Every structure is written in structure tokens, then in C-alpha cells.
């Protein structure tokens, strides 16, 4: 980039691999700019390593706490208890492993949870590539000879650790499947995601695929997340030829685009929609039906669940409340911000205009963070099953709409692109996908999904609401206060001390209100000391990490609360 970039407009992004910066109606997106790599947090993270030493310490804190409990306190019952809940253990390890992987601290996970593998991990003195690391991880986690520790003084002779709990897939196949998915996700999203974010997503897809293909008995509400999410990916594959044909026409310069081409693009888009619909009805519906108890018809089961089964009035009330909140949120967005855009104009602004622009964009983005607080904090504990199910459907809907937007499929692609352009920042302009809203939903849902992975209805405590508290209150207040009033920066970083303090106060205040308003499950107590320590750690990670806050912070907060034994359960 030229050094006098303030005087010379930047060129539009290359559209050879993505339509994110292309006008979905075919016009040139001359109002869209690439992100200045000197200002991009992603460029900083890639060029200066994956994280600071302080960030490493924060990431490793839950594992160090576990190591203290196991080695210093001789609390071997805790380790055995975790191993007897293999699905919970492996999900948290697999997800958080890639957060550590992003920091190149490969041995910390195993050295903490499985002390008897230290001698293996000490041999890893290099930083292998992603496939190498993934393969090493698979070998360690899926090798029963490593997990069984009889030769190391632990009596695990009667313990069979299956990371996916009765999933009828050979572990070597799962290992290669995980590496393959990781490579595919990296190719499909590059350069939008960091290494740790890629790993978390790939691990989640692997877990969902393994669960969807297994013969494991699931609760009805658990069926939809793996089957719908994986089924949606499968359903889009036959539609890809039509999607690519429509995209080629979209890339045609407007002056060369005839009415015939426009009509063909619409025909290709309709063919893509029809193909996906046929796959949903012909493949996903029977798949869900086979997994439901009694092989009920999915649509009939949903109607009966919503309007007839025990607790239907609570579920209907929750759905109504969510619909009202979303409707009012859309009205506010359209009325206040419909004429504003989150994209940079062609000419770069001066410093004062840039700051004002950034603050306005930040307020628009954090509005949705506040909206999730209003929607979910008062309701999740009323029916965790329904909340789990609703999050599953919402994630699939978000993925589908993002496919339509990214591929600029008419007649919806242009409208979705224009709407989301009001809220995109540099992270959403690095690749062909807009990840903010996807990660916001996933971050709110992850604590609940992970807690309910043991096939029981949880007592909803602070840990289960941690994603909503961290993102809806903590991250939002940290960003607003930091940008508006922040003066003291953390060691030269953009994040401020004032923002970090606001994060802590907002989360603790939200937790206190939820406790006083009885928005937690009955008989739930809160360990305020442990909650404060976990919140401070999460706030510091938010300040020092280059990773996506919406995805990493809720996962980290949930882990810290479990590591401290402060899950909010009586």
C-alpha cells in the first residue's frame, strides 16, 4: 500500500474468490475498501505471532487450576469423574485445544489433564503444521493405550474412554476425518479465520458429524443440532453447480449483462433453492425421523412439542417473547440505521472522521449484543430443552442465509448483503463470509450445548448463561466504554483498562440481576468469588487476545467456571 494512502483511494477487493465486496446486483462496489493491513488486528496477529505471553498464561489458567487440583490436592477423584463423562471432557478438550493451538503451546493440554502423557509432549519441540498437529492430537486422544493409565499408578482397568461415547465409528477414521474437515474449512474460509478459530469450527463439525452418523440414543431436542447442521451442508452440495453458474453471471460487468443473463441468473438461483428444498425433504427429514424416539414425523413432532406436550405454554411464551424482541430490533435497525453503512467509503477519512465512524459502527454492532441479553437471560432457565432446540434451528438458519448472501443468490442475496453491510467491520471484510453474527449466536449457545451434552436437563446457572453474559453485557460494555471513554491502553494495545473494568462490572452486575430476579434454575447458588476470578480472566483475555471474542470468550468463561468448581449449581 502506498504511504500516501490518505490521498489515494484504495482499489476494491479482488472478487475472484468472493462476492463479499461485489454489489450483488452486479454494480461495482466502489464504496467498499480492503482493510488497511497496518490497522488490521488479523494482520497484526499473523505477523507478530499468535499471541502474547500474557495471553498464553490466561489461556492456560483453567488447565493450571486442574493440574493444581490433581497433583497438589491429590484430587484424583476429579480426574476419574471427568473421564467417566467422556463426552463432556472431550468436547471441552477438543474445542479449547485449538485455542491453545493458536498460541503454539501444544503440550499444555495433555500435561494438565493427562499427566502421564508429559513425556510424549516434551518431545514436541517444534511447531508442526495444522494437519500434523491435528494428527498428533487424534493419536493422543483416541489411543486407548495412552488414555488408560494403569501402568502409571491409576486404577482405570474398568474404565473405557470413548471420546464420542458409543459412536460406532473407528477412531482412526475419525482422526483422518477431522484432519480432512480442518483442511476443507481452512480452504473455504481463508483468510477470514485465525488458526484457533479454524480449529474450533473444524472440531465442532467433526463432533456433530460423528454424532449424526452414530447409533447413539439422543434426547429428541439433541437430534436436531447435529442432523440439521450436517444435513444442511450435505443439502447444498447438489446445488453447487447452479450456485456457481449464478455467481459467474453476477461477476459479469453490468454493461455486458443482458436481460437474458439476468433471467438465467434467477433461474439458476431458483434451481439451487429447489435442490436444497428437495434435499431437506428427501434426505434431512427422513434422517431426523430415524433419530427421533418412535421415529415420529419431524414436522408433527415439532407441532406437538410446541402446542401439546407438557410445558407447551412456557415454550410458546418463550417463542413469542423472542419474536417480539427480534421484530422490535429490526424496526429499530431499519429506522435508525438503514441509511448508514458499516463499509468504508472510497476516500479514506481523516482521523477524527474515522474515529466517529468507528464509534457509530460499534454502537450498531453492540445493539445486537444487548438484544441477546433481553432475549435469553430471562428465558433460558424456563425451558433449557427448548432453548437448546431454538439455538440449533437459529444456527442452521443463519448458515443458510449466509450462503445466500455470500453467493449473491437472487432475489434475497442483495437485500441480505445490504443489511449486513451496516454492521460489518474489518474481520468481516477479510474473506468471503460474515462471521460476526454466526459467532455471536454460537457463543451464546455453546455453554448450554456443552452442558446439556450429558443427556440430562441441567440446572441453569451462571455457567450456562456465561455466553450471553460475556457477549451481551461484558464484551458490549467493554467496547462501548473503551471507545468512548478509554484513555489508558493495555501495553500499547487498542484495548483499554477502562473497557476491561466495564467488562467485569457488566458481567457481575448481570449475574447479580439474574440471581435476584430468579432467572436461574431453582436451588442454584452462585460462588461469587470464583465467578469474579473467572470474569476477570475472561476480561483480560478479551483485552489481550487477537482471536474472535464472540467465539473464544464464552468458551473460555465456561471452562474457567468449571475449572474453579463454580458452575452455579447447588
From TrEMBL:
Listed name of the protein: dolichol kinase
Catalytic activity, EC: 2.7.1.108
The organism of origin for this protein: Saitoella complicata (strain BCRC 22490 / CBS 7301 / JCM 7358 / NBRC 10748 / NRRL Y-17804)
Question: What's any GO biological process attached to this entry?
Answer: dolichyl monophosphate biosynthetic process
What's its top-level EC category?
transferase
The record's principal subcellular location, in a coarse class, is endoplasmic reticulum
Give GO terms: molecular function aspect only: dolichol kinase activity
Q: What is the lineage of its organism?
A: Eukaryota, Fungi, Dikarya, Ascomycota, Taphrinomycotina
Q: List the record's Gene Ontology CC terms alphabetically.
A: endoplasmic reticulum membrane
Family of this protein: Belongs to the polyprenol kinase family.
Q: Does the keyword Kinase apply?
A: yes
Q: Which domain of life is it from?
A: Eukaryota
| Membrane protein topology class | Multi-pass membrane protein
Name where it's found: Endoplasmic reticulum membrane
Q: What keywords would UniProt list here?
A: Endoplasmic reticulum, Kinase, Membrane, Transferase, Transmembrane, Transmembrane helix
Which parts of the chain span the membrane according to its record? 57-76, 88-106, 192-211, 223-245, 266-288, 319-337, 367-384, 390-420, 432-450, 456-478, 499-520
Region (Disordered): which ranges? 1-30
Amino acid at each position: 500500500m502506498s504511504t500516501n494512502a490518505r490521498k489515494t483511494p484504495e482499489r476494491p477487493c479482488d472478487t475472484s474468490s468472493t462476492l463479499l465486496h461485489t454489489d450483488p446486483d452486479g454494480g461495482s462496489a466502489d464504496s467498499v475498501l480492503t482493510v488497511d493491513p497496518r490497522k488490521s488486528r488479523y494482520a497484526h496477529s499473523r505477523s507478530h505471532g499468535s499471541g502474547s505471553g500474557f495471553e498464553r498464561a490466561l489461556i492456560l489458567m483453567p488447565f493450571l487450576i486442574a493440574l493444581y487440583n490433581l497433583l497438589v490436592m491429590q484430587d484424583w477423584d476429579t480426574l476419574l469423574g471427568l473421564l467417566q463423562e467422556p463426552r463432556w471432557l472431550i468436547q471441552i478438550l477438543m474445542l479449547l485445544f485449538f485455542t491453545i493451538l493458536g498460541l503454539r503451546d501444544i503440550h499444555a493440554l495433555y500435561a494438565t489433564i493427562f499427566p502421564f502423557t508429559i513425556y510424549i509432549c516434551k518431545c514436541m519441540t517444534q511447531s508442526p503444521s495444522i494437519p500434523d498437529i491435528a494428527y498428533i492430537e487424534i493419536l493422543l486422544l483416541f489411543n486407548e493405550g495412552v488414555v488408560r493409565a494403569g501402568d502409571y499408578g491409576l486404577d482405570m482397568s474398568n474404565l473405557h474412554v470413548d471420546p464420542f461415547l458409543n459412536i460406532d465409528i473407528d477412531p482412526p477414521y475419525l482422526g483422518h476425518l477431522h484432519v480432512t474437515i480442518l483442511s476443507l474449512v481452512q480452504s473455504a474460509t481463508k483468510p477470514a479465520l485465525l488458526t484457533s478459530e479454524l480449529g474450533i469450527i473444524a472440531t465442532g463439525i467433526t463432533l456433530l458429524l460423528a454424532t449424526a452418523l452414530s447409533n447413539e440414543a439422543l434426547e429428541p431436542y439433541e437430534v436436531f443440532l447435529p442432523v440439521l447442521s450436517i444435513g444442511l451442508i450435505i443439502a447444498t452440495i447438489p446445488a453447487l453447480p447452479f450456485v456457481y453458474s449464478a455467481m459467474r453471471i453476477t461477476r459479469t460487468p453490468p454493461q455486458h449483462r443482458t436481460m437474458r443473463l439476468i433471467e438465467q441468473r434467477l433461474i439458476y438461483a431458483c434451481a439451487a433453492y429447489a435442490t436444497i428444498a428437495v434435499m431437506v425433504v428427501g434426505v434431512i427429514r427422513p434422517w431426523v425421523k430415524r433419530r427421533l424416539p418412535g421415529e415420529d414425523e419431524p414436522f408433527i413432532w415439532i407441532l406437538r412439542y410446541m402446542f401439546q406436550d407438557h410445558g407447551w405454554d412456557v415454550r410458546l411464551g418463550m417463542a413469542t417473547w423472542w419474536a417480539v424482541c427480534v421484530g422490535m430490533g429490526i424496526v429499530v435497525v431499519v429506522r435508525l440505521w438503514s441509511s448508514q453503512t458499516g463499509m468504508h467509503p472510497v476516500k479514506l477519512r481523516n482521523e477524527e472522521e474515522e474515529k466517529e465512524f468507528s464509534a457509530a459502527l460499534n454502537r450498531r454492532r453492540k445493539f445486537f449484543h444487548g438484544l441477546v441479553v433481553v432475549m435469553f437471560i430471562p428465558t433460558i432457565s424456563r425451558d433449557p430443552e427448548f432453548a437448546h432446540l431454538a439455538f440449533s434451528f437459529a444456527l442452521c438458519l443463519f448458515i443458510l442465509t449466509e450462503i445466500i448472501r455470500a453467493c449473491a443468490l437472487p432475489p434475497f442475496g442483495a437485500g441480505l448483503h445490504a443489511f449486513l453491510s451496516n454492521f460489518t467491520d474489518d474481520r468481516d471484510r477479510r474473506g468471503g463470509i460474515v462471521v460476526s453474527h454466526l459467532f455471536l449466536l454460537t457463543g451464546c449457545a455453546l455453554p448450554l450445548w456443552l452442558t446439556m451434552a450429558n443427556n440430562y436437563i441441567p440446572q441453569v446457572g451462571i455457567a450456562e448463561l456465561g455466553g450471553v453474559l460475556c457477549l451481551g453485557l461484558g464484551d458490549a460494555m467493554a467496547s462501548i466504554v473503551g471507545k468512548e471513554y478509554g484513555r489508558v491502553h493495555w501495553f500499547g494495545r487498542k484495548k483499554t483498562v477502562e473497557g476491561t473494568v466495564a467488562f467485569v462490572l457488566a458481567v457481575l452486575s448481570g449475574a447479580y440481576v439474574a440471581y435476584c430476579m430468579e432467572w436461574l434454575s431453582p436451588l442454584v447458588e452462585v460462588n461469587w468469588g470464583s465467578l469474579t476470578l473467572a470474569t476477570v480472566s475472561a476480561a483480560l483475555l478479551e483485552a489481550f487476545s487477537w482471536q474472535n471474542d464472540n467465539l473464544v470468550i464464552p468458551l473460555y468463561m465456561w471452562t474457567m467456571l468449571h475449572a474453579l468448581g463454580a458452575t452455579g449449581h447447588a
